[in-house]
Amino acid sequence: MSNSYFFPVEGTILLCSSGSVFTLSQCRVTLSSTDCYIVHEIYNGENAQDQFEYELEQALEAQYKYIVIEPTRIGDETARWITVGNCLHKTAVLAGTTCLFTPLALPVDYSHYISLPAGVLSMACCTLYGISWQFDPCCKYQVEYDAYKLSRLPLHTLTSSTPVVLVRKDDLHRKRLHNTIALAALVYCVKKIYELYAV
């Protein structure tokens, strides 16, 4: 699959590689294969926002290495959604770690006041992540801030000065990490509750 992007000037008639004739606003020019996709901010009619969202969804499903989102609204929404996923992951890990290590640092009579709530929080975040986030294509992407990597992308073709750039990253290890820690926290909480109330 090859990538493409819109030129900023519209109205010119071009012959695309498929042999069909399109206006410049419709025809796309080939970029490097599966590396970068640009969602340009070109408003053609009342359904432009829906078109932006559709293009983004297609780019996510196609698993491009980089996705550049020029429309401000959808770019900000996507960045916030990724931030939410990152927050759930980090909270699950940190809370689960607190749950498991608090009994080692505090007296036994008091440690469960911290470890149990932390364990519940870790399990809640892990469960929420698993239900509403891990199957979303966005979970495979992070917002790219590295200036060197950004300089290698064709951002000079954009009309926006503040595009959101997504980079695809393997999230398998971090899923395993927070799932393992949350599971360990669950085992600890069940064991501790049994000791406190059932014995």
UniProtKB/TrEMBL annotation:
Membrane topology of this protein = Multi-pass membrane protein
What does the UniProt keyword field contain?
Answer: Membrane, Mitochondrion, Mitochondrion inner membrane, Transmembrane, Transmembrane helix
Compartment(s) of residence: Mitochondrion inner membrane
The processes (GO biological process) annotated in the record are: inner mitochondrial membrane organization
What cellular-component terms does GO give this entry?
mitochondrial inner membrane
Q: What InterPro entries has UniProt attached to this entry?
A: TMEM11
Its biological purpose: Plays a role in mitochondrial morphogenesis.
Q: Which family does it belong to?
A: Belongs to the TMEM11 family.
| Designated name of the protein | Transmembrane protein 11
